[in-house]
Amino acid sequence: MDLVLKAMSLMKRRTTAPVRLLYGLCLMTLAGVTVPAHAAGDSHRGEDVFAQECAECHSVREGKNKKGPSLFAIVGRKAASIGDVVYSDALRQSGLTWNVASLDSYIAAPRKAVPNGKMKYDGLGDAKAREDLVAYLATLH
Ligand code: HEC
Predict the structure, then answer these.
(1) How far is the CA of 66 from the centre of ligand 1 (A)?
(2) What percent of the chain has pLDDT over 90?
(3) DSSP character for 69?
(4) How many domains does the chain have?
(5) Which letter, b or e, does each residue of 105-138 get, where b requires 16 or more Cβ atoms within 10 Å of its Cβ?
(6) Cβ atoms within 10 A of the Cβ of 100, count?
(7) Are 15 and 52 contained in the same domain?
(8) Looking at the structure, do residues 8 and 76 belong to the same domain, yes or no?
(9) Whether the CB of 46 sits within 6 Å of ligand 1
(10) pTM beyond 0.90
């Protein structure tokens, strides 16, 4: 972020405010500042889907790991990044970051998205239910 601030103060001398704002936004994007992904589904329905499909193994409370890791603040998190969870090598080496798209394909077919992973879940075929579920997961912050 230092770099961004420096670049912005350099620009201050020559540009008008709206242009600076635009440059600032571009720079922040370049610097990798992620804007939370907007999920289109219905998060209330998604909460029910979660209760039926995932709650057996996952909690949404921070720090509460069950058979599976806590899904608190899952959107935007790197895969396999909770320190005290024993993940599969496959998930640790997947290089995934959880966003709307990667969560959707993992939930649809965990074994296809992460071969040799250890989430014992067959997958959720209903695309609308997945969309709602991911919208719910996106609220967990
Ligand atoms: C039978 C237990 C079980 C069920 C049911 C289950 N999971 Fe999992 N989940 C796991 C386990 C175990 C892992 C760790 C996988 C690994 O290390 O390969 C995991 C990992 C994950 C991760 C990666 C977390 C991280 O920290 O990278 C996400 C996301 C996830 N599950 C979402 C879901 C969702 C959403 C559902 C419901 C549709 C679900 N899971 C259903 C056991 C389960």
Answers:
(1) 10
(2) 72
(3) -
(4) 2
(5) ebbeebbebbeebebebebbeeeebbbbbbbbbb
(6) 18
(7) no
(8) no
(9) no
(10) no
